[in-house]
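Researcher: First entry.
Model:
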Amino acid sequence: MKRWWIGLLIGLGVLINYFDRTNLSVAATPISNLYHLSDAQMGIILSAFGWSYAAFQIPVGALLDKIGVKWLNRLATILWSIATFMTAVVSGMGLIILSRVLLGVAEAPAFPAASKATGYWFPVRERGVATSLFDAAAKFSNVIGTPLVAWAVTTWGWKGGFWLTGVLSLVYAALYWAFYRDPHETRLSQEEAELLREGGAQQAGEAEAGIGKSLAYLLRQRKVWGLTLGFAAYGYSFYLFLTWLPSYLVKEMHMTVLKSGWYTAGPWLVATITDLVIGGWLVDRLIQRGHDVTRVRKTVLVVGMIFGLAVIPAAFTHNPNTAVIFIAIALGGLAFSAPVGWSIPSLIAPKGTVGLVGSIMNFVNNLMSIVAPIVTGFVVQRTGSFESAFVIAGVVLLLGILFYVFMLGKIEPIPDPKV
């Protein structure tokens, strides 16, 4: 049972992690009004987190495979708490950008570390639910975090949201230092140790070929690129909604900041449920009943992306309830494809390279956290609406479906490189 407590601890970290990421999107309208920022300038600020977050993915993957999950995440939790508090005390566009860049550095290990730790702690047959625990937390953070931060911003001003999330980050840092250990550092029951050993859990250790050779080898693998580009297409829509959805509701649907927070929570609640039930429980259930692993996972990936195309009709309605329904369909589909994507690095990576595979995938995915906010900001400023921005997201999803179908191939381990 210790593995499930570890799974919940990892999920709690991602939940707090995303409070820190979404607080700026909730505070975007008050900040832009205070500093007289255009939509294009706000798009640049919203993307600043992604600059460093994406840039540090490959180094973080190498460090994870070199020094392990525990110590890298211990240091990261302290640093991201400092960066969140920093945002609350600075003023001006430049310093806000600097604090977001620092936050991106600090939170860079979050998902690759979660994926690697899940590979250590869970057998293959439980990997779907285990992965959905931390992936669903990213969605659920918007269900409780967006209204909570909106309340803090409404009550204490835009800096109040950052003070609140900074305190929560410090609390999590203390919990992580106290309770996270890798399996080989933990006294497991004989039953649980045997389950991990015989169930295909990843073993700790570095790749024999070394980091440089392993990275070069992985970058030559078609399977890695099929996963990476398909997941990046998911990331474009995910980051569009993560950074611009509250502003879309305020600007396009003429809501208050507080009301936009509650309307934002609805689609993210749908996403949380589909992530856990379809991307987690259903995937594991079908595989345990003997269905082909590749067919199950690729079907869920592609069907989820198809549901994501509901972002297109959302672009052409001016009714807030209709728009939120379409957005909920889109986010619900994208959400149940995401944990399947995150489970794949630990299923295809050669020994000692789960961190690298996850980081390659997350590096390109998080280039979308830069591109989506900026493109959306410029398109909205140029056209005066979100219609074209949502259509662009739909086209990107179509490309992602093609990468998953034709490049990913069978979901099985890539042969170890020859040393």
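Researcher: Second entry.
Model:
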Amino acid sequence: MTDTKKSIHGQWSSRFAFILAATGSAVGLGNIWKFPYITGENGGGAFVLVYLLCVLLIGIPIMMAETMLGRRSRQNPINTMVTLSEEAGADKNWHYLGWMGVIAGFLILSYYSVIAGWASAYVLKAFTGSFFGADATTIKGLFDNFMASPIQLTFWHSLFMLATMLVVVRGVNTGLEKAVRFLMPSLFVLLILMVAYAMTFDDYYDKGIKFLFTPDFSKLTANGVLTAMGHAFFTLSLGMGAIMIYGSYLPKDVSIAKTAILIAGTDTAVALLAGIAIFPIVFAAGLEPASGPGLIFQILPIAFGNMTGGWLFGILFFVMLVFAALSSSISLIEPAVAWLIENKDMSREQACIRSGLVTWLLGLGTIFSFNIWSGFKIFDRTIFQLMDYLTANLMLPIGGFCIAVFAGWIMKQQHTEQELDMSDALSYQVWRFLICYISPASVFVVFLHVVGVL
């Protein structure tokens, strides 16, 4: 099928370009913002070990499957599921899987852009010396005042959405590919600089390494295991249409298996490097690693404001956070843009303007949930909490589960063998066992956990 078909949107110029793009989609706020604090909350090394096993057994097989679906169809996720379910002689309702992925990415970007706007604002705050000599009370006041201002939050949300759409409107080669060729190397350089900075703290650096890599299973709970499993799945951008649409731009001669392993490995390396960079700074400042979501915006600014070189490295850190967010945001909106182009006969410019505007408007709900609508709740959740719960806890696990089931049980085996084109039969059989049994069962357990059954 992919021998003759090509996406109307173009394709990546090389395997390296796809790796950068897919890694950029995977590497985001989850790696640098979320991974360090959930590691801190769950005891460190033992949690990291479980997380790595989950990436290997769940993340990589599902990433291979999602990439394979996209490349075989060469269309947006919705049309992909229509085409491939017809090819497999399966129920036509599989197209709802494509819809769920596109909508999930769309909803995630609406609040992701708001959080990325925080990081953008903190670049300016770090540059102007707002953290200098500040204590916990000062930093908390700074953050609370920022959250209480819908005008400030809307400005930074708008700026970030504009940057995202300016990249996406330029298309696959001159937009997405050029952006990730700049963003990803820059991100790695900034991350290495942050690690080098952390190494200057001597004993605290050793303490951070020990905390991150020395397993202490007495500190790991059943909830921690499930958290590691869920994060391994979500951090790779699976189930939201991003990897599927990027896979549709992948040249036929590129090995899906090798590429997926490299992307997952790089994404994991970024998360670990973020931990190596952050924990020594936290320990050196006498702060608590289990500080929750506020670790980045309310804890690290205290450290940067009271350390030698903290002004410069505070700026670099939040620039790195913005780059990571931007590389992910362009992949979140691309499936919706591709669908509008393919199904509604729009130009890329029209599709970007309409999808970007709707996303921006939805983001206002997240902004107002932190201030003027903070008392308005649906099912006892603010708009932001509801959007986050629906996507991360419901839509993505269901999407990942369905991708595994479709690739393992619905698609014809000869088609999956043809697309994956693995070098030996054993490697294919290992993938097939994982995608048919281990991956869907594991994701199902995570889903039962997040809905409160386990």
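Model: Note on the second entry: The mean pLDDT is 89.
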